[in-house]
Structures are given as C-alpha cells and as structure tokens.
Write a structure and sequence with these properties.
A hairpin with an 8-residue loop joins strand 5 and strand 6. The strands form 2 sheets. Strands 1, 2, 3, 4, 5, 6, 7 and 16 form an 8-stranded mixed sheet that branches. Strands 10-9-8-11-12-15-13-14 form an 8-stranded parallel sheet. By secondary structure, the protein is an alpha/beta fold. Helix 2 packs across helix 10 and helix 2 packs across helix 11. It folds into 2 domains: about 130 residues, 2-Layer Sandwich (ornithine cyclodeaminase, domain 1), CATH 3.30.1780; about 180 residues, Rossmann fold (3-Layer(aba) Sandwich).
Length: about 325
C-alpha cells in the first residue's frame, strides 16, 4: 500500500527541530559519499521562448539516501501564466528499494518551503561567526514566508527587514507574520534599508541581480537561494569564502551559474561544501569582517530525507489515506 499525503498532512506532521537534524545528517552523509544526487533533469515548456509556448518549466530531482534506505524523486513544474497564487506545483514519490514497493506520494510544496528554510538555518548555524542581529530578506513570496517562520523558530534573531520590488506584497507579508514571530519584523522601504544588517538572504525568482555591490560594505553573510542570477558578479568574485551544498549543481543553476557559464568562476573558486564543514568540525572558521557567500541550490536528497522521516513518523496513523496501485 502506498500512503498519500496532502499539503495539510505534511504541514501537520513536520517538526522543525527534528527536520533540522535530518537535513544536517543528510549533508554529512552526502559529504561522505553515502547519498546519490544525480543531476537534475530540466524540461523547458516555453519559458525559454522556444516551443511549446506554455511559459512553463519542469524539474526532476531524484535521490537515494543510504542512511534511510530510501530512493525517491521530486517533480516540480512552474506554470508562470497560470492564474494561481503560487505558480509552482510539486509531488514527491518515495520507494523502498529493499521491500521493492512505492511507499508514499506526498505534496511537495510545503516540504520544499521548509527544506529551503532549513538550508538557511544550517548556514547561519555553522557558517556565521557572530550572534544574529538583523537579517535582510530580499523577496516576499511563497519561499520568504518559510524563511521567516523557520529561522525565527529555530534561531535567535533580533530583526527581519523584508524588501520586495512589490512593496505591497512585502507589507502584507509583514502584517501577516508580525503577531506570530518572536523577532521584530518590518517592511524595508528600500534595498539599502534591507542591506543594513549583518545577514542578507535573497529568495527571489529574479534573473537579474537584486542588489548592487556598491550598496554593501564587503563584510556581509549572504545566502543566495534563488534559481537564477540574484547576485552581481563583484559580490561573488570579491567574497572571502564561498560555500555551496553541491559543487556541480551550483555551477549549473543558481547565483554562480551565470559566472560559471562565462568561464569566470570554476570549481576551484569554491571553498567548501556545507557537508564538508559539518564533517570536519561542524563550524567554519570565519574571521570578523569577511564576506561569506553561501549558495545552497537545493538537493533532491534533502526533500527525500525529510519526506521519508515524515513517513516513518506517521506510520500507523489512521488519519492518512492509503492506496493500492497494484
């Protein structure tokens, strides 16, 4: 029997603290070559201005996680012209290679939001050298809400400044979350205001830089989460340390990909993976005043690990649906 999980099922059964442990362990196992993260398979459906003219994009993220004995895949598709609040949909499929059966089909968007926020938490926990004062968040969409909720729940943050090119969207997000967060939160009225803290998180779908290097002082801790070119070249090239989650995939997609495609950034320019940091001593040695850029493009193995953890934690729950596909 295959268990079925709606978005509400995932939300009701995901625990942030234990999910952080799962994410950290999966990073460690990845560094120890005990996880398979094949290249993501992309399919353009018109977003590249080619046929078919659907303005959509699909991505397939398979993985095998040895420490959980699970294989799986997340399939996500963005339909940019669809009339819906969140234009991206995804499902996760889990398979037990020992029992030879599909064990779960799970709604993937809520889990992805949590997973992406966990990437930031791991970076802040293990790469940031000081206490966290103010975090400037660029973007006020679907993913930004998870960043704010999860980081606030797991870490001690004083202030969030949220900036979005759509100022109304930023104000609406702040208004909705302000009563729920421990940290203070405000809608920044300019990019400069959002750059005033010691941490910058870019969580947008922008294909052009969302900030100017001249607006920064060179000592920021930057987490770039978007799939495209959120950071200016100089911000990356002048960084004292660059840490990623997966070397090959970060050179193909995300903040580093454009520079890499022009031959101006290579594997040799990457200082470490976050998994290696966790394996070696759990804390990167970062000096005061250094600019650190953390680029976690997002691994299918994290989605599969979190999904499998939820499946195991909900074993025997009568409230969940099952279906016999065979």
């Amino acid at each position: 029997m295959t268990r079925l999980y709606s978005r509400d099922d995932v939300r009701d059964h995901i625990d942030f603290s234990t999910t952080l442990e799962v994410v950290e362990q999966t990073y460690v196992e990845t560094a120890n070559d005990r996880v398979l993260n094949p290249p993501k398979l992309s399919m353009h459906l018109g977003d590249d201005r080619e046929w078919p003219d659907l303005n959509a994009f699909a991505i397939d993220m398979p993985a095998y996680v040895d420490w959980l004995d699970v294989a799986g895949v997340k399939w996500a598709i963005a339909t940019w012209d669809a009339e819906r609040d969140v234009p991206i949909s995804s499902l996760i499929l889990l398979f037990d290679p020992i029992g030879a059966e599909f064990t779960a089909v799970m709604e993937g968007m809520y889990l992805t939001g949590v997973r992406t926020a966990m990437q930031s938490v791991v970076g802040l926990k293990h790469l940031h050298s000081d206490d966290i004062g103010t975090i400037g968040v660029f973007g006020a969409g679907f993913q930004a809400e998870f960043q704010l909720r999860v980081i606030d729940h797991l870490l001690d943050v004083e202030v969030f400044d949220v900036f979005d090119v759509d100022s109304t969207r930023a104000r609406d997000l702040v208004s909705r979350l302000e009563p729920e967060l421990d940290a203070s939160i405000s809608a920044a009225t300019s990019r400069t205001e959002a750059l005033g803290g010691d941490v910058i998180i870019t969580v947008t779908d922008s294909k052009t830089p969302v900030l100017e290097d001249s607006e920064t002082d060179g000592s920021e801790f930057i987490i770039a989460l978007g799939s495209y070119r959120e950071l200016p070249d100089r911000t990356i090239l002048d960084a004292d340390r660059i840490v990623v989650d997966h070397v090959e995939q970060c050179l193909q997609r995300g903040a580093l990909a454009d520079l890499a495609s022009r031959g101006q950034f290579t594997e040799e320019d990457i200082d470490s993976t976050i998994g290696t940091v966790l394996v070696e001593d759990g804390q990167a040695v970062v000096s005061e005043g250094e600019r650190v850029v953390f680029v976690p493009i997002g691994l299918g193995s994290l989605d599969i690990s979190i999904a499998e953890h939820i499946r195991r934690e909900t074993a025997g729950r009568q409230s969940l649906s099952e279906y016999d596909f065979v």
